[in-house]
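Lecture notes, unit on binding sites. The following record was shown on slide 14. It pairs a sequence with thymidine-5'-diphosphate.
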Amino acid sequence: MAKGRTSIFYCQNCGYESSKWMGQCPGCREWNTFVEEQLKDREELKKRETLARTHIYRLSEIEIQDEERLPTGFAELDRVLGGGIVPGSMVLVGGDPGIGKSTLLLQMCRNLSEAGRRLLYISGEESLKQIRLRADRIGSFGDSLRLLCETNLETIEGTIRAEKPEIVIIDSIQTMYRENISSAPGSVSQVRESTGILLRIAKGMGIAVFIVGHVTKEGVVAGPRVLEHMVDTVLYFEGDRHAAYRILRAVKNRFGSTNEIGVFEMKDRGLCEVRNPSEYMLSGKPQGASGSAVACAMEGTRPLLLEIQALVCQTFFNIPRRTAAGTDFNRVNLLMAVLEKRVGLSLSSCDAYVNVAGGMKMTEPAVDLAIVLAIISSFRDIPLDEHTVVFGEVGLSGEVRGVSMAQSRVQEARKLGFTRCVLPQVCVDQVKEIKGIELCGIRSVREAMELL
Ligand code: TYD
Ligand code: MG
């Protein structure tokens, strides 16, 4: 780096550094995310890193105890965390503003405070009054929950060291700042350095720390991506703003699997767990309507039944209109081309609208067969059998290919009262006989059509 340089440019989205400003970040391809920050902040960071290495150990000298995990009172949250909160761990909860991160963590505090756990909720975003108002909506709290409105990390560190709580919640990391760093709160240096301090507190004192991080597209504040590698667990809270359900997804977890999701529903008294997401997704399914097929997709290790809807009608345009909501648009076009060529449906003169009901997003190839059947059903205006579930990937020659975890998909369908399952022939052998559900193995889309 050139002598006398005093600042460096950081991408606020992914943390990419550069000595000059750039329009597009080479790291994450976002535009307009570079912000200038002072170099002396970085030197400060480096100095700390060299000071940190003091003790070295042999592997056999390290004592391990069985990790005791604290249940959060939410089975869905426990599952995503890998079985509860691990003391000394650091969890990042990311998500769009307004999705319900503060609500989720406050409700977790409620459950834990009733169990008598010592909690410290530090908010840099809301006033104590606002938290109280939210808390009143959620329910009654135990006395072991302490609140603090503070954004200065030196004060926060001191408070945590004095109070010695078991669990600390930082809402949000983008509002926290350190005095000796000149860049604004929410910049890459501030967010990284603040997280570093919290990390030391968490590991040193065995306190579980939850930090909230807003996901931002505009690059005004540093996104949670910048600190994903620092924390133990990264959870993303996502969902459609217009739909009530929310999905909590583990993206990284040093203490459990990342395949798990938790499903919640936002109600007027806070978030409620959805124990049976398939039932939830299928509620409101029309009876005897054409263009509707039930698919069984996987969300991590969890099977999820979804209704796929299609509406195919005569076009009045030169180029037919096609839309896909909740699934991949190009995939829908591809499947329609397969139907045109391999089965002989004349779809080229038809508009087609495909929708995953309930606002869920699903791009797994296993829903191909359901999309295809919904399109055929709508085209011919013949409803499909209501008690049939379908899954399978459709290839370019119209063949139906195998998918993973057929057994759990069939089991889920059985659990929800479906009596027939149309699945790829290759999967039939993998599925053990399940009482009450008939398995129909098929090899091609044409066979599926004949079956229905
Ligand atoms: P919030 O937890 O403040 O979001 P975040 O911390 O992720 O920014 O969520 C606020 C939204 O949740 C807001 O739009 C109102 C809604 N909400 C309810 O619908 N019911 C409730 O009981 C609560 C507390 C919030
Ligand atoms: Mg909030």
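Take-home: The longest helix spans residues 188-205.
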